[in-house]
Design a protein that fits this description.
Length: about 230
């Protein structure tokens, strides 16, 4: 089985293959597109659709599912492309329910920077906007929980359920994205960038940066802008 992903609206994406001896004709894609209006808020508010509501919210960052899930759902995906009317909607709802039960891995990484404002009307959208705007500040969990109108424990559960990440993981990811941008676009020192991005010390910044990107900040800067900025 190949890749199986669920992408929310306005999320840039592309696929390519580097396998030798393969041509574009060797690749096949099954694409299912649907409007958000297919699952209105009044429907998603029903308890039976709670898992679908969570899945669609998480898809704003892109979700990738396991090869096992892709293989198990391939026949149903093919059938869905041929279905029409109510049969198509029921098949789609059932498929989304199955994907929700399988979790999925969030695709957006530390170097990704969405050029559009994350203006979702949902509670999650407002929370994410708040985190993105203030992640370079101290921004403890309790402060964001108050912004969301939830207790800290309720907020922590809600946020992880909706995004697949803990609040700290998401906040660190936001800080690392800002740091990636500064490493490429400025000649500020790594310490200056670490502090400006919201990290309290260089050791933690280096550790989180390597965890997110797979390389230290100095190597990232050299890779992304080898002829423009000095390595500081």
């Amino acid at each position: 089985a190949g890749d199986l992903v669920l992408l929310g609206p306005n999320l840039p994406h592309t696929w390519f293959s580097r396998k030798p001896g393969r041509t574009a004709d060797s690749n096949e894609a099954i694409v299912v597109q649907f409007l958000a209006s297919a699952f209105p808020e009044t429907l998603l508010a029903l308890p039976e659709f709670e898992v679908v509501r969570s899945l669609l919210a998480r898809s704003a960052l892109g979700l990738r599912f396991s090869a096992e899930t892709a293989g198990a759902l391939e026949t149903r995906l093919r059938a869905l492309t041929a279905a029409r009317g109510l049969d198509a909607w029921l098949a789609l709802a059932s498929l989304l329910g199955e994907l929700a039960r399988n979790g999925g891995e969030v695709l957006a990484d530390a170097s990704y920077r969405n050029q559009r404002s994350f203006k979702m009307e949902s509670r999650l959208g407002r929370i994410i906007e708040h985190i993105e705007a203030h992640c370079d500040e101290r921004l403890p969990l309790g402060e964001v929980a108050r912004f969301a109108g939830l207790t800290p424990s309720s907020f922590a559960r809600f946020f992880r359920k909706m995004t697949g990440k803990t609040f700290v993981e998401f906040r660190n990811g936001c800080r690392i994205r800002k740091a990636c941008q500064s490493l490429v676009e400025t000649d500020h020192s790594i310490l200056e960038i670490a502090l400006a991005s919201g990290f309290e010390n260089l050791a933690n910044f280096n550790r989180q940066f390597r965890k997110s990107t797979g390389m230290p900040p100095r190597a990232y800067r050299k890779l992304r802008s080898p002829e423009v900025l000095p390595s500081r």
